[in-house]
Amino acid sequence: MAGEAVLGAFMQVLFDKIITTVLHETRSLWGAHGELQNMTTTLPTIQALLEDAEEKQLKDKSVRYWLAKLKDVAYDMDELLDKYTAEVLQRKTEREAQSMQVCSCFANICWHGMLQFKLRHRIRAIRERFDKIARERESLGLQILDWTDQLQVTERPQTSSLVDDINVVGRETDKEKIIKILLADAGSTPNVSVIPIVGMGGLGKTTLAQLVYNDHRVKEHFQLRIWVCVSEIFDEMKLTKETLEATTSGYSCTTRNLNLLHEELVEKFKGKRFLLVLDDVWNEDPNKWYTYSNALRSGNRGSKIIVTTQNESVGRIMGGVSPYKLKQLSDSECWTLFRNYAFVNGNSRIYPNLEKIGRDIVQKLEGLPLGAKTLGSLLYSKTNEEDWKNILKSEIWELTPGKNNILPALRLSYKHLTPHLKQCFAFCSVFHKDYIFERSILVKIWMALGFIQPHGSKRLEDIGNSYFDELVTRSFFQSHNGNYVMHDAIHKLAQSLSVGECHKMEEDLGNNDPKKLHHLSFSCANSVPTSFVEFYKFKRLRTLLLLQGYKSKTGPIPDDLFTELSSLRVLVLHRRDINELPNSVGNLIQLRYLGLSGTDIKTLPQSIGKLYNLQVLNLKNCNLLVKIPDGITRLINLRHLEATTKLITKITGLGNLTCLQELDKFTVRKARGHKIKELKEMNELRGNLRIKKLENVFNGKQASEANLYAKEFLHTLKLEWSDERNVNCEGENLHEEVLEALQPHHDLKELTIMGYAGTKFPSWLGHPSFCYLQTIHMSNCRRCIVLPPLGQLPLLRYLDISGVHGLIRISEEFSGIADIQGFPSLVELLLDDMPDLVEWICSDYVSLFPCLTEVAIVDCPKLRELPSFRSLVSLKSLHIYNCPKLGTREDDRALLPSSLEDLRISSCSKLEGLPITLKFIGISDCINLQLLPARIQELSSLTTLTIVNCQQVQYLPEAGLPIELQELCIKECPLLKERCQERTGEDWHKIVHIPRIEIDELILRRLG
C-alpha cells in the first residue's frame, strides 16, 4: 500500500510529462522522440494495474517487489526529464543574458547535440525497464479493476439502530443538540430536511445517531423511523428496497422495477412524519441521491433524514443544513470509555499500575472513541503489565489485524481520495506529530513537488487550495485557530502509506533504504546538534525540511552538500543559527521552493540567480539580511518572493519577474530599473499593490507603461504622491495626465488615491464599468474642485474623502448622471478635512443612499447645509464634528430619520433638529450651546446621552430626560454639574430615574 499511495498520482504526472515532451520537443529530441512515444503505450497499462496491486501487495511479497521496481524506474524517468528540462532552461536563460555571438552559438549547438545523444540512450534503457515490468503482470495475476469491483472487495460490516448506551460516554450534549433540531417546529422548511453528522472515522457518528434514534422523545415525535446502513455502494435500487423493508416487519420485495418500488415507497411515507437514518454515506453523485430521494418527499412536514458521513460534501449534495461536526472526546471521557472496556466492571482502582499505563495509552488516542474501545477490548481482563506496555509502545497499525478495526475505518476514507489527493495527503507524514500546517505554505510545497495538476487556465495555487479544502472536508485536517492540525491517528495513517517514501530523521530508519527515500525532515525539540553529514546518504532527496529546532545547535552547511543532493525540489532551513548559505546552492537547478525564514543569514550567494526553476523564495523574519542579490531577477519562474518590503524595493529590474504573484509595494524612482515601466509585464500580480512616489513619473506615456488596466487579478490598488503642496499649475496638469493613464482593470475592488495635486479626477473614476469597486479612499487631494460621479458605482459600499481643500460645493453630479445613480450600495460615508466646503446639494433626496447606515462629517467649518437624511431609512449612526455653521434647514427641521440609533455632535452649536427615535446621543465641544433641545424628552428610544464641554448649558430641559434613558454622562459642563449634584442639585429630580450616571469621572450610580 505504501508504494501505491505515491505511485498512483506520480505515474499520471509522469505520463502527462512524457506526452507534453513528445508534443513540444519533437524537433529537438531526435532519436529520443520514438522511445518516448513507445513509452506512452506502456505506461497507461501499468497505471491501470495499480489498484489491483494495492490490494494484493498486503499479502503477496512479489507484488510489493513489483511496485518497488516500478517506483524506482518511474522516479528515474521523472528525474531524467526534469534534469533535461532544467539544463535546457539554464542554457537558454544564460545565453540570452550574455547575448552570445555567432561563434558561441556554434558551441551551443554542439552542447545541445551531446545532451540529446545522452538523453536518447538513457530513455531507451528506462523504456526497456518499463516494458519488462509490464510483461510481469501476467505472472503476478494483476488485473485492471474498475471502481465498483474495488468497492465490492472492501464492503464494510452493516450497522443497526441498536446501541449499547451503557458504554457510551461524552455524547449527551451532542445528542440533545441533534434532538432539538429533530423536534424543532417545521415552520417554512421543506417537508423533508437533511441533517449531516460529519467527522473522521472512529469518532462515534454512528453511535450518536443510534442514541438519537432510540430516544423516547424521538420515538413519540415521528410516526415512522427507518434505519439503513448505506456504506460505500450507493445503489439506488438496493437502497429503495432496504428502505421499504425497514418500514414493515417481515416485508420483502423482489421486483427489479425501480418505478414500482418508488411508487410503493411514496405510499408508505405519504402523510407521515418520518425519521430516516442513512448511516455511513460516501456518495458524491447528486444524480444518484435525487433518484432515491424523490420518493421520500411525500412525507409530512417535519420529516427528517440524518446522514452520517466522513465527507462534508456528501451532506451538501443531499441538500443538508449546516453539518453537525462531531468533536473528539475529552481525555477524561476517553479514559472512562477505555476503562469500561479494559477492566472488569470498569473497576481500575485495584490495578493502580495498569491504570497509570492505561491513562498514558488514552493520551495517545487524542479523544478517538473507536481507539478507546478497540484498545480497551484488546486488554480486557489482562493483568500482565508487559501486555499493557506493549500496547503503549505499539503503533495502532501493529496491533492484531483481526481485532483492530481502527485502521480499516481510517483507510476507507483514504481509499475514496483521488490519486492526486492521496499523494498530497501521504506526503504530510514527513512533518512531525502535532505540526501546525499553514495552508499557503503546504500548497506551495505541493506545487513545487509537482503534486498539483494543471486544470485549464486555473492558477496552480487555486487548484492546490481546492485540494486542501477537499482534505479538510473529508476530515483529514482539523481547523486550529486559523491553521490546521492532523489528528494523531490520521497522521499515523499517512505514515503507514508513505513507508519508503517519507522519513523523519529523529526516528529510526528501520527497513527504509536511505538511497530510495525522497522526502526527509528533521525536527529537534532539544539541544542535540544538527550535523549535515547525516544527510549525505539520502542521495535522491526531493524534499529536505529542517523544522522545529530552536534549541538545536546547527553547524555550518558544508560547501558540497547541495552538489550531493542535486535532486532537491524543496529546501527549508528553518533554524535561527544558520547564518550562511553555501555557493553550491546554485547546483540545485531543479529547486522550486527555498525556505530560509527565521534564519540569521546576512547575505545570499550570487549563485542563487541560477535557480531558474525556483517558484518560491521565503525570506520572512530574516532580520539580518540587508539585500537580495540583483541576480534574482533572472528567476523567471519565481511566483512568490516573501520578504520585507524594504528588501524587495531595493531590487533593480524587478519587472523581469513576470510570474510574480504578490508585490505589496512598488516605489517609483528615477533610476534605471526602478521606473514605473517595471510593472509593464507583471500581469500575474494579484491581491494588493501600492505604488508610491508617483511624482517620479514624468508624463502620461510613462504612466501607461505600468499597464495597470491589464492586471485583472489585483483587488486593491493604492496610488500615492508624496507631497503636492508645492506643485505649480504645470504640475497639476502632469498629475492629471498621469492619473488618467493609471486606469486599473475593471475588476478592481478597492482604490486609494493619496496626495494627488490635480484639480479634477480622471474620467474613469466613477465610471459604471467599474462594477466590482466596493471601497474608495481619497485623501489629501487638496486642489480638486469637483468630486467624480461616484454614485454611479453599483457596488460601492465604503467611501471616505478627506483633505479635498479646494472643494466648495458637492453638486448633484456626485450622485451620478448615468443609468445607475444615488449610491445604491453605499453603507459607510466619511467626509473629513474640507475647510472650504459650504454646501452639499441634491435635487432628489428620496432616491439617495438606500443602504447607508453610517455617516461621519468631520472638520468642515464652513459647511452650512446637508441634504435631508430624513428619507434614509437604513441610517443608524451619524457623527458630526467641528461643523460650527451647520444648521437645520428652515423647511425641514426633521433633518434626521427615525431609524437613527447613534448621534454624536461636536462643535455644531447651530444644529437644532433632533430625531424622534435614538439609542445614543453624544453632544460635545458645543461651547456656544446654551440650551439643550426641549424635544430631547420625546426621544422614546434613547438609552445613552453624553454631553461634553458644553460650558454654556445651564440646565436640563424643563420637561426632563426620556424615561427610557439608561446612561447619562456629563463632562466639562460646570453649570450642569452643579445642578445635577446627587440629592441637592436643582435638576437631580430630572435624572434620578437613570440607572447609571457619570459626572466628571464620578460615578453616582451603576447599572444593576
From TrEMBL:
Zinc-finger recorded as keyword: no
Record has Nucleotide-binding as a keyword: yes
Disease resistance protein winged helix domain ranges (all copies): 430-494
Keywords in alphabetical order: ATP-binding, Leucine-rich repeat, Nucleotide-binding, Plant defense, Repeat
Domain R13L1/DRL21-like LRR repeat region: 676-803
Signal peptide range in chain numbering: none
Limits of the NB-ARC domain: 172-345
Molecular function GO terms recorded: ADP binding; ATP binding
Gene3D superfamilies recorded: 1.20.5.4130, Helical domain of apoptotic protease-activating factors (1.10.8.430), P-loop containing nucleotide triphosphate hydrolases (3.40.50.300), Ribonuclease Inhibitor (3.80.10.10)
InterPro entries hit by this protein: Apaf_helical, Leu-rich_rpt, LRR_dom_sf, LRR_R13L1-DRL21, NB-ARC, P-loop_NTPase, RX-like_CC, Rx_N
Biological processes annotated in GO: defense response; response to other organism
Protein family per UniProt: Belongs to the disease resistance NB-LRR family.
Protein name: Uncharacterized protein
Source organism: Musa acuminata subsp. malaccensis
